[in-house]
Write the structure tokens for this entry.
Amino acid sequence: MLNVEGKVRLSASDLVGHLNCHYLTRLDLAVADGELDKPSIWDPVLEVLVERGALHERGYVEHLKLNGFEVESVEGSFIDASTVRQTIDAMRAGARIISQGALQSGQWSGRADILRRVERPSELGAWSYEVIDTKLARETKGNTVLQICLYSDLVSAAQNLTPEFAYVVTPASNYGPQEFRFADYAAYYRRVRRSLERAVTTGFEEESYPEPKPHCEICRWRAHCDAKWREDDHPSLVAGISKSQIGELAKHGITTTAELADLPLPFPWKPDRGALPSYERVREQARLQVQGRADGKVIYEKLSPTPGLGLSRLPPLSNGDVFLDLEGDPFVDEGGLEFLFGYAFKDDGTDSYTRHWALSRPEEKGGFERFIDFVTTRLGTYPDLHIYHFAPYEPAALKRLMGRYATREVSWTECFGPVCSSICTQSCAMESVPA
């Protein structure tokens, strides 16, 4: 979002930001108006994702070239009169592929990864263009659909013809584009676009607040919002509380962590949504956190064991039990890479730990095979062993590796059948550690 000669210029990132959080739009507008300084953050994870996104885009461009397409690239990293002119000139000349095309219409602008010529007449001539966007995410979600709709709208203004389709190229697709019909999403796109335009032109219809959202993890304003939550003692600071619980508490005038901590037990009212015990748990959590703030240390209390709940659901211990953890990177090559196999166990009564690092496909395959062989052998000595893991990721990853390399299928069927409930309905010994 930029203020150019008193007029706010908007982009695809502004549209996506507005979809995820109206408070984000408010802050960006304050920066554009000179009321706030733009935050400066450095996040190594985001930097890596940006780098990999650029590699994915370059890989697709090279794929197009290898398939005989001539690619005309629009130089420069900004959207200005020069880059827009380069793009329009290339479109009028009928270029087969235009990389990083700069587009502008009214207060909106954007740089599309790829503009591909299609033989559909437009104001340009006997051809027109459709948008292809490269994305790292393996599932195309609303954010991406909004972006390609905006780019398609900008292309429509340039060629006086609305593109029929837009496309997304994701990893693990062998560069095969996913097709999206613009008309199917146009109403949704126009609604979000109009909402953003109204916000920057006439202001917000209602006061916005930085409610915690998944987008916070990648938002440049997250430090600002975190400071505000702490200043306001917002209930979202309570560990384990849900958005619906925060809303239910607000209806009863409970709007801070301290107020929740002071709420008497038993509850003076019955919640309209959710079970009463869940509210009692977050109330107790708030009490501990408020007490910890006052004492300047982390406070915890031991819960009494409850049959059938929590750790009480775990089976009896076995001397052969194995504690497994896999670490994977979903953006390595096509399909990701499980780069660390780590498991702890008892070896003749002594605590032991084994790890296998995998920085290549052969090493990944080897790490998988060694773990399966280890468990297969161990089951012969300890037929009652259990494999503990933190979440469903480990069983899913092991099945994925078995399918990827077509190895150890017999071992899995014969030995892991009674071990993993996600594969069969027999008595399960592969347990997820309760949260």
